[in-house]
Amino acid sequence: MSKTQTLYYLGLTSLIFAFAISFFINLQTAQAQYQDPQQLSNRDLANSINAGKVTMMAGNSNTNLMKIALDMTVSANDGDNLRLVPVMGIGTRHNIRDILYLQGIDMGITDIESMEFSRLNKSYSNLTKNLAYVTLLFPQSLYLLTDKKVESVEDLVNLRVNFGQKGSGSDLHAKEIFKTLNIPVKPTYHPSHLAIEKLNRSEIDAVVCFCLDVADNYNAAKETGRLHVISIPTNVEILKKYLPSFLSSDDFPDLIPEGKKIPTAAVRLVLVSYNWRKTDLRYKKVARFIEAFFARISQLKSGPRSDKWRQVNLAAELPNWKRFEPARAWLAAQDGDVKENLRDTFNDFLVKYEDGQIVAPSIASNTNNTPDVVSPPPNVDPSNEKLFRDFMQWRQLQGR
Question: Under a CB-based contact definition with an 8 Å cutoff, are residues 249 and 259 in contact?
């Protein structure tokens, strides 16, 4: 083959190759420009559904945290415009970790004690910068259910006590309380309904639970008539970490005599959010949820939900922590209504105070939970400062 022929074939090959490359590129461009109508429809639907989605860390399906989150969906959901999606979690302390680091999580439910534990122990870097509270919710009381042969918590030394799911809020707080009381026990980890069955069969000796409503487990507890509720001593060391509370016949009609109050400890639940930047789309989504939840919370206070919702005071503050800005802004806009509610609450306190239903020394004993100094509300004599301090301490303990 001559040199001329060789050059001819090389040129022809290059031309064909260049044409093929050009054809392939044009084909890809055309395919990119063409979008199947069905795919477009599906994409628009997906965007519409996710535009209003807010995810919230809660608890397992049978826990109080999940019940609370589900209550919020009833008051806040608005089709695709706003949809709260509760996510199953392990417990209040783990929820803090998941809100900070688990992808796709916007906010969640935890408690003050878990937040303070994480803050004081520096569990996470920049915690108070990255985690913000939305509002305080209400207390969860601890109940300690035992066989009647156990007369006091001191009798549980080296006995089998169920702490709930391992790593859950009940587990972590129960360990802390028994450690503080210096009472060594043998923890077991069963769901509360199974634990009560085991307690009835004497397979364990006690059940500890931080529960919002005990009715779900109550029927199993009263079957044999062998069980009763015992008190948790709320001494000075316990009150440094927990709120004082009590259980009554309203909680266990057949296990606690009417009129009797059994002292116990409680934790205060808190709704928190990752502290999203204002430029972040998720900031706007969480803000939309907060506005709807705050505006409709009266539905939870008056509807067929737990009576605990009536204790929620949206304006209650949490020392050492910043409130998520959309929540702060909403409350600032409602400032007049909040002051009016404070006056009504104070009047309610005065009635109970004068009737002897409230004893000031028992309120003042909880020094760890004393709120910041505030001025008396309108129409209240400011000269009686001690009375007003008692009122503010009572109000915080009531969650109002």
Answer: yes
> Mutual orientation of helices 169-180 and 92-101 as an angle, nearest 10°?
130
Q: How far is CA 142 from the centre of its chain?
A: 16
Rounded distance between C-alpha atoms, residue 209 and residue 171, angstroms: 8
What would you report as the CA-atom Rg of the chain, rounded to the nearest whole angstrom? 29
C-alpha to C-alpha distance for 171 and 92, rounded to whole angstroms = 10
pLDDT at residue 238, rounded to an integer: 87
d(CA 145, CA 162): 10
**Structure-token pair, residue 336:** 């007049």
Measured between alpha carbons, how far is 72 from 287 in angstroms, rounded to an integer? 15
Alpha-helical segments (H) within the chain: 3-33, 37-51, 64-76, 92-101, 112-120, 127-130, 169-180, 192-200, 215-222, 236-239, 281-295, 297-302, 325-333, 335-354, 360-364, 385-398
Report the pLDDT value the prediction gives residue 172, as an integer from 0 to 100. 86
Ranges of H-type helices in 187-312: 192-200, 215-222, 236-239, 281-295, 297-302
DSSP 381: -
Q: What percent of the chain has pLDDT over 70?
A: 70
